[in-house]
Structures are given as C-alpha cells and as structure tokens.
Specification:
- It holds the Pfam family Glyoxalase.
- This is VOC family protein.
- This protein has 173 residues and is an alpha+beta fold.
- It has two domains: 65 residues, Roll (2,3-Dihydroxybiphenyl 1,2-Dioxygenase, domain 1); 79 residues, Roll (2,3-Dihydroxybiphenyl 1,2-Dioxygenase, domain 1), CATH 3.10.180.
- The chain has two helices and nine strands; from the N terminus they run E-H-E-E-E-E-H-E-E-E-E.
- The strands form two sheets. It has a five-stranded mixed sheet, covered by helices on one side. The protein has a four-stranded mixed sheet with strand order 1-4-3-2, with helices on one face.
- A hairpin with a 2-residue loop joins strand 3 and strand 4.
- The radius of gyration is 18 Å and the shape is globular.
- The chain starts with 8 loop residues before the first strand and ends in an 18-residue tail after the last strand.
C-alpha cells in the first residue's frame, strides 16, 4: 500500500495570475508561498491552504479559454455536471462554527456564493432546509475569478461502516 498522508497540492489553471493572487491571498487569506516562472513564459504559483496542503495555479498567456459546463461547473446547483477528467470543485475544511461568518465575508467581498449554509444529508434531494442528526456535512459554495467552484465544508459527524451503502455504478450496467 502507498502511505499517502493527505493532499500536497491541487494544480488548477487561471486566466489572470494577478487577479488569482488578489483572490486567494487578499480575499481568502491564503499566503502565496512559492512562485515559479516557467520556461515557456507561463507561471506556476502556490498558496498555503492550511494543514500542509496548497492550491497551485498555472497561467499561460495563450492558454485555452474556460469551458463552463465541460471543464467547470456551469451553474451550481442546477447544472453541476462536469466532463470526465475535469475538476468539479475543491473543498476547504472549515470549523462548522465559522460557516455563517464565511457567508458574510464572501458577501462583503462581492464573491458569488450560496447565500446560506447548505445542509447535506441522505434524503432523496441530498440537502435539508434545517439542521438534523442526518446532516453529515455543512457547506458554503462559491466561485473564484476563474469560475472554479469552491466549497468551505465542515463534517458534522464521524463516518461509520453504515455510511458506505451504495454499490459503485458502471457504464456497462
């Protein structure tokens, strides 16, 4: 077995590195910890997102344009499917007690977001209006300047073997 300790970094692509630095460092408060000038004229910057993990971005002047609904979420929660091989979203761990303040901070910064904390449960819809004992994670969703969907997430319970109760789907079925 491999001895993986957690996420080291996730590498994404941005449309404007300066705008990305302003968002991740200025709005989210993630320190810029490493910058690399690539031989092809591009850049690769790393932001400390806590717990020893980083969010990294590539930028190229001639990079392909964004492809909402293909390589990124088009409109959460209504059109949230993305293509095979794409990154749907990244979730940053947060204390549950900080979620309401996160909504307020995103609002104050003018960042598009869910205007309430989302309670995820095992109901048919997967979400509940009110907090109850079946809610397993609470989330706030937002997008960065590149249209990348982000989530602040707080687990509300520890998972047990009973939480694994679905057979994996296959296209051959």
């Amino acid at each position: 077995m491999f001895k993986v300790k957690g996420i080291n970094h996730i590498a994404l692509v941005c449309r404007d590195m300066k705008e990305t630095v302003q968002f991740y460092s200025g709005v989210l408060g993630m320190p810029l910890v490493k910058t690399v000038q690539l031989p092809d004229g591009g850049q690769h910057f790393f932001f400390d997102c806590g717990g020893g993990a980083a969010v990294a971005f590539f930028w190229w002047k001639d990079g392909p344009p964004a492809a909402p609904g293909i390589a990124s979420v088009k409109s959460f929660p209504y059109e949230s499917k993305t293509a095979v091989g794409s990154m749907n979203h990244i979730a940053f761990d947060m204390e549950e007690s900080e979620l309401e303040a996160a909504v307020d901070k995103l609002e104050a910064a003018g960042i598009p977001h869910t205007h309430a904390v989302v309670n995820h449960d095992d109901s048919q819809m997967g979400v509940a209006q009110e907090m109850h004992e079946g809610v397993f994670v609470r989330s706030v969703y937002f997008t960065d300047p590149n249209g990348i969907m982000m989530e602040f997430a707080a687990y509300t319970k520890e998972f047990t073997p009973e939480d694994v109760r679905h057979e994996p789907a296959t296209v051959d079925a």
